[in-house]
Task: inverse folding
């Protein structure tokens, strides 16, 4: 970076907010995927005004900026820029909860606001409102996830869908307020998201057209009553019934949130690490008979569903009745867990543990998984999904503040969208599984209903990042799986930085149009060059 | 229009698809608002390929095109272009239902597909699926309404929200497929709308960036059970309770569709025409005591709510229980109407009519209104809302094929968004009502829940378009109401062509950005110049 630019940043921000020391910068290049990122510096603005000045300085000195919220886009590149020599604009210090409206049930937040922070705030204020947390953990940014169009599994799970109004710093330093936000006296910016005229918000998600400095998000009133339903099939083949039932339950709005269908192997990665002992030190992948044995001991089915019910007591009762009817004879297990039941089990663990032992279940361990998954669906962020990246590590998983990037875990997320019907679902599995197996990796499938008509398959590719050969295999496997998915029509809804160049290459009117918009809004290519974009 | 251009169009299209005869063109300039439109010609392509050729011809000869679907944007300008001397691109002959997927519950449709056509198709195919009809009537375009971000009141009421994937002819003649649609083999274009990379669809609604030639829309499975709930308050002041209850019922998802709260005067416009006789030929507006007397006779409350319940029998039962609890002591009437009850009343009309007479109700007339409103909420398009524009006419309302533009009815739609809480709602009424009254018009308010946090107030300004003085008053009233709403922060979600120039004028980053995008996608300003746009 030019010395003048560094001086300009130092004049603008306080000294500890401009980081150019190589060691200090290391944390921004930590990642779960192999990267060879070089970054020039990191700067940490505290206000929208500072962000405006930053883009003007960047324009003046021909710099590339790479804004991150908290930079924890694990398995997709974390904080790493797509191209070399960017300056990280670390927005984590812009962490104000600007407004919470209890009556109309929304919040306005800055990029640095974490899931845990928002959760704690809502609890402390006793608003009667809840957020939708993703599985990405307490320390992740709510805004960052929204801009990537991430999702959770409560009724407010589609984060972009529940966003109303954005404040965006454009590459020319101006501020764009979307929706009704640009009407001086608007009372409805957070209540109706489309505004009037072109609905612009979508183009500022999964893109590089501006720096988003705040958004409005809708919050969900805590339901009067809540229960979670867990169900499992003994056989792989049971998936057929689960897929068809899931679609029926969603299309008919019996279920207001999402439904998750998890393969046995995916659950194993949540509960244990790769069983090096049982595998007698043998190289992965996990053998089928050992996987089966462990799963049986832990009472994990071939496919395992989870769905939460939110509503009045009467409603939940009515929904339970329908779910029982729909899933009858399709599962070997169908359990409803209420707050009271879970509390009871926790309280009398000493009593249920021996019973569990007789039944071959480790109740203590079950509760360890059940409680955070249960709470997650009630809006409490948890680290329950974070052990997965540690699957192939030989050192133990940290007890808390889990950070897979910092710990150099090997993880690629692949997230193809799959039609919610059995033929496609089967064809999809038949497409990806052989590639995973061929390269020596487990196929840890979760199907999450992202719409009433489609699953997103969150598919972690787990590898040992300390092993260079395995890392190379993983990268090959990743690209083959993604290509096969695109070829077959199961397109990922989101991509890691390692895929961005492939994504936008070739003749394609869609990327032409996107490039045209980029060129209009950021002709010098200041912001996140190459991120979901040719420029 | 240059002779060469006309020749080019005539070479491209069959002769009867190029209209330049002044008399034949008249139907495009019919409108419920005063207009002084001049159009050069109308052309009626049958295929996307023809649309592509049309934009290239327009580019060559410097023409402005104004695409319409069926052109029935009544009260907002109908088919009339914003600026002079456009060529209407009438897409009504592109009326193919390209695909209906019964399993995954969606359709792909062209611009000319009407509500009635889609309804009939779904009924004939016996799909078990329903559409969400707007009140705009059977002959209106589904796609056209979606592009204006119109809405209905079933659970699929937000038409833009249930759209997945667009095909758009750009000003350079290329075809843009949005969402996943540009991936060659995509199996998920109609199942997950965002695609990957910037979500572009929003910018092609309420704008002039391209010509949309098809869209995917989600269809709703017909519910196992259905009931409609009608409730009314005696006093104007009862609105407070209704607003707070509405918000609670929606935020807590007791109600899956929308809730409508209609003022007495709005209902009068649906049931009768201006009572010239009772008013003894006196000039409008309607006197309070006469309005009251008629309303009492027809058993219309001061505020009247309607909400529909969709679900299994158990669910609807559970929801009814909650609704009864929430509205208890807040309404003088709270009736649930099921299919069976309505059929019974219709069948034994001869028996209930005398009973109704005793109770002061005209059951025959009640059924006349109840049946189509009931069916509308079950997905059957109807003309039930179409009498409103005839309010001040002295000739009777046509029995069917109602077309207010053709009949020269006087109607401006004003559609401000209002926070769903009582203080704002009251303030809103206090803002608009005096202006209506001052100019001699009735304030016919409906509050429709367009989100769980906001009402859209559909506010028809009804006037006698054959009366030049009244038309002038209406125009003045319209502009004053719109200005007052914007000033107070109740911004309309949609505008008529008469407001477009005002809307985009002045320094505003939002309209700068929109203009930038327009300039990129349509640098010659071929498509719908001035529509929600500076260019």
Result:
């Amino acid at each position: 970076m030019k010395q003048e630019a560094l001086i300009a940043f130092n004049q603008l921000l306080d000294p500890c907010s401009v980081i150019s020391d190589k060691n200090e910068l290391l944390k921004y290049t930590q990642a779960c995927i192999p990267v060879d990122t070089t970054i020039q510096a990191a700067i940490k603005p505290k206000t929208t005004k500072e962000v405006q000045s930053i883009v003007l300085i960047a324009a003046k000195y021909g710099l590339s900026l790479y804004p991150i919220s908290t930079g924890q886009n694990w398995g997709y590149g974390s904080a790493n820029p797509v191209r070399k020599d960017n300056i990280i604009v670390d927005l984590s210090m812009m962490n104000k909860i600007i407004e919470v409206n209890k009556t109309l049930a929304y919040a306005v937040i800055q990029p640095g606001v974490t899931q845990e922070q928002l959760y704690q705030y809502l609890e402390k204020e006793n608003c009667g409102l809840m957020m939708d947390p993703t599985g990405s953990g307490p320390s992740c940014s709510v805004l960052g996830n929204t801009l990537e169009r991430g999702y959770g599994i409560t009724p407010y799970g589609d984060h972009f869908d529940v966003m109303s109004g954005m404040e965006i710093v454009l590459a020319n330093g101006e501020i764009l307020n979307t929706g009704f936000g640009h009407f001086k006296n608007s009372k409805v910016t957070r209540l109706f998201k489309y505004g009037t005229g072109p609905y612009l918000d979508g183009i500022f998600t999964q893109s590089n057209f501006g720096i988003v400095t705040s958004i409005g998000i809708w919050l969900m009133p805590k339901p009067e009553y809540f229960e979670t339903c867990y169900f499992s099939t003994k056989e792989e083949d049971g998936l057929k019934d689960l897929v068809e039932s899931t679609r029926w339950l969603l299309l008919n709005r019996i279920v207001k949130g999402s439904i998750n269908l998890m393969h046995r192997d995916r659950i194993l990665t949540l509960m244990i690490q790769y069983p090096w002992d049982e595998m007698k030190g043998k190289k992965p992948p996990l053998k089928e008979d050992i996987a089966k044995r462990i799963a049986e001991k832990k009472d994990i089915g071939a496919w395992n569903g989870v769905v939460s019910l939110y509503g009045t007591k009467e409603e939940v009762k009515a929904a339970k009745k329908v779910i029982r009817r729909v899933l009858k004879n399709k599962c070997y297990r169908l359990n409803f867990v209420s707050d009271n039941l879970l509390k009871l089990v926790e309280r009398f663990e000493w009593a249920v543990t021996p019973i569990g032992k007789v039944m071959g279940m480790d109740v203590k361990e079950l509760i360890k998984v059940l409680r955070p998954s249960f709470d997650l669906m009630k809006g409490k962020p948890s680290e329950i999904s974070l052990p997965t990246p540690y699957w192939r590590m030989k050192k133990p998983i940290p007890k808390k503040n889990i950070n897979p990037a910092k710990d150099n875990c090997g993880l690629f997320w692949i997230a193809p969208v799959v039609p919610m019907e059995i033929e496609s679902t089967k064809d999809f599995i038949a497409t990806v599984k052989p590639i995973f197996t061929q390269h020596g990796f487990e196929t840890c499938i979760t199907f999450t209903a992202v719409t009433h008509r489609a699953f997103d398959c969150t598919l972690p590719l787990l590898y040992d990042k300390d092993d260079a050969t395995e890392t190379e295999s993983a990268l090959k496997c990743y690209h083959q799986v993604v290509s096969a998915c695109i070829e077959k029509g199961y397109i990922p809804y989101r991509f890691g930085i390692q895929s961005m160049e492939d994504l936008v290459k070739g003749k394609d009117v869609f990327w032409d149009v996107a490039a045209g918009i980029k060129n209009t809004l950021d002709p010098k290519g200041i912001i996140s060059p190459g991120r979901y974009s040719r420029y």
